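Thread: (apollo) hypothetical protein, structure

OP (GT): Posting the sequence first so everyone is looking at the same thing. Length is 211 residues per the record. Can we get the structure tokens written out before standup tomorrow? I want them in the notebook alongside the other entries.
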Amino acid sequence: MKKLLSDISFEVKKAVKKEIGSVNEALSSCQKMDGIMDTLVTISGKIKELENKNTYLTNQNKYLELKIDATEQYIGNLEQKQLNNTFEVAGVPEIKDENTEIILNTLATKLNIVKKEITTVKRLKGKNGKEGVIQLSLKQEEQVDQWIKAARKVTTLVVDIVSCPDPAIAKTKIMIRRALTSANKTLLWQAKQKLKKFKSEFDVFKTNDRK
């Protein structure tokens, strides 16, 4: 009987120890889970903080981009305004020891316009192997309008301005146009390219529509 009680007591102690071990293990797991949850809360807080910083920086970047665009546009307008009394003569071939005064006198006679109050005349350096234009600045913007309007009424060729020109370019048309900043020249070129593409696509559309 004693042995039986002893065996039962041993088994009970063994079972109790096992259960206590399981409880301790469960408590340890709970503590670890609590630690993980605390870590997740901390990480979530940091992620939220970073998201807020990212939103702030994105908004600041957009603001600065708008500020830069506005500043560039303002500067561009100022630069263009400085050219309001300036125009260009394009298509006149450059010759050695050329006299721009003689060229202008000949051009003015051809256009039947009085050449007066010209402040500066200079031949600009060409780009990408192209001939540079002759740039003229006048005292008043209205005088620029007179030159441009006169040029629209009369077709002027190289042979009309230059003595004994190269036959290959003798019939090339001389162009008179307002002076533009580099940025505005680029915008004008892009607009012309888009218009050219649109006209080409429209012609294709009309051709297909007739079939």
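GT: Both are above now. Quick notes for whoever picks this up: The two ends are 115 Å apart (CA to CA). Residues 86-179 form a domain with the Alpha-Beta Plaits fold (CATH 3.30.70.330).
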